[in-house]
Amino acid sequence: MGSRVPHLTPLLLRCADDSNASTKKTLGAKMEQYITRVEQLKGVTAAPAPAPKKAAASGDGKSGGGGGGDDKEDDEKSKFREALGSVINTESPNVKWDDVAGLAGAKESLKEAVILPIRFPQLFQGKRKPWRGILLYGPPGTGKSYLAKACATEAQSTFFSVTSSDLVSKWLGESEKLVATLFELAREQRPSIVFIDEVDSLCSARGDGESESARRIKTQFLTEMDGVGSDMENILVLGATNLPWGLDKAMLRRFERRVYIPLPAEVEVRALMARINVGTTANNMDEAAWNFVGQHTAGYSGADLAILVRDAMMEPIRMLQTATHFKTVAGVDRDGNQQSDMCVTLSAEP
After folding, report:
1. Rounded to whole angstroms, how far apart are CA atoms 250 and 36?
2. Which of 26, 87, 155, 232 has its CA 20 to 30 A from that of 93?
3. Verdict on whether the full-model pTM lies above 0.85
């Protein structure tokens, strides 16, 4: 009885002193039943939880012991890093400042934010700090993404090109972790540039009708860019959008410098854009012809001029499709060698 419930012991003693033997026997039997039941209940509630099953041994012979939680967390981080591996441009975009026609103001802003702090860090001391966020906004096709590539090439920085599809996940909580992993990678590989194309699709104005997942992504972005403990040293966040008024006000505040990328207004700039798009393709354009193109393309964007040039370069192919005779001529073959009688051209003349 030493292990029995303590508060029932006096009751048993009182039963022992009872003069009525039958009553004593009945009460004793009942008490035995109660004590046995209580002991059974105590054994059930005090039983230790079953030990977790040991993880199966891995291929290297190590068993998943006490570090299972850490291993799971490491696997999750590795999964997120692998998912973001495609947004890192390991090779330089190979776009120079000279490849971008016009946009002198935007180039100067990007040089202040990226080039100067890397080449002359002694100039940025005390309260003089480079820009941490730059928003490029303007009509479609004006060269916002092209400017970002030129910036990454000139700065020799790690370039992260991100869109909404890279950061939005259908699983609860994964989108925020992807954003956190993105900035963690940027901090590890600094100096780095995080370019968010069409940033309004990720950070539009918050409202009552939006989903909880979209709200959490925006909150994570805001925290990473300018939150408590966020380290943005040698990290530039470049955003590009056609709808700056659709951005959340808090996100707009994080972009300290906002640069408008307009349509090319100067005739010389439009002519230069046409020259750049023609490149090394053989042509017989002279200076007057280039100026003619620039004068008659007012209101065209850089993308419109690129399409115009591509369409013009297809015109000789269209002429060849209507040809009816072959004519031997001297020229350069497909390998770049000068030929006198092997190279032929099609002629529409009989």
Report:
1. 67
2. 232
3. no
